[in-house]
Design a protein that fits this description.
This protein is mainly alpha-helical. It has two domains: about 60 residues, no CATH class; about 120 residues, no CATH class. It is about 55% helix and about 5% strand. The strands form two sheets. Strands 1-3 form a two-stranded antiparallel ribbon. A two-stranded antiparallel sheet has the order 2-4. The chain is elongated.
């Protein structure tokens, strides 16, 4: 195993995959990390311990700063799009069919105000409409980036406003465990999947650099 320490010459690290051989051959250790990396078809920069077997099955050569610049982990374009499509479908269905039942089952976390409120039906209508467009976007996410980015940033803004209101009103603190973190989670998942570059892009950038 090769250990990387700060302040010393960084060893050359190899990432990527040849189409003719697996990243983890049979002699590689069957660790949980190896299994997850093989399952997701991604290669990750591990700054503390790097198995030497990686250097025998990869094409593109990057040093540690370049790997960190590439966010340390890359996913194939096909897997990225698949994960993004699944996320859009799940979030779209929740927006359409999930908000009203949640407001009934857990009103302290999903319904604002006390007693009957006209606001609830208005927000349900807005999010149900957005959910329909997210389902449409799931067919071809890269062709509908605008609506996905709108979902990301509107969730951040809406979540931040609700968090401030929940902190300000003791009667609404339950939202800090429900719709507030839910919106931030939606923003993180969609934002990361949109920003995550594929392994092909990292390899191409390295070759041209």
């Amino acid at each position: 195993m090769a250990f990387v320490t700060a302040g010393r010459d960084l060893p050359e690290i190899v990432v990527g995959r040849r189409s003719s051989e697996p990243v983890f051959p049979d002699k590689a250790p069957k660790s949980a990390l190896s299994y997850l990396m093989r399952l997701s078809d991604c290669t990750c920069a591990i700054p503390i311990c790097i198995p030497p077997v990686l250097s025998t099955s990869c094409d593109a050569r990057l040093n540690l700063p370049e790997l960190l610049l590439a966010r340390g982990c890359t996913m194939s374009e096909a897997n990225r799009v698949l994960c993004l499509r699944i996320a859009l479908i799940v979030i779209g269905i929740i927006f359409i069919f999930g908000i009203y039942p949640l407001s009934i089952i857990w009103p302290s976390g999903w319904a604002w105000g006390q007693g009957h409120s006209h606001y609830l039906m208005m927000i349900i209508g807005i999010y149900a409409t957005l959910g329909v467009f997210l389902l449409i976007a799931s067919r071809d996410p890269d062709a509908h980036k605008s609506i996905i980015w709108f979902t990301v940033w509107s969730s951040v803004v809406h979540g931040a406003i609700m968090a401030w209101q929940a902190f300000s009103d003791a009667g609404e603190r339950g939202h800090l465990l429900a719709d507030v973190p839910a919106l931030f989670l939606i923003a993180i998942v969609l934002g990361v999947l949109l920003q995550m570059g594929s392994s092909d892009r990292v390899t191409t950038a390295t070759a041209t650099g």
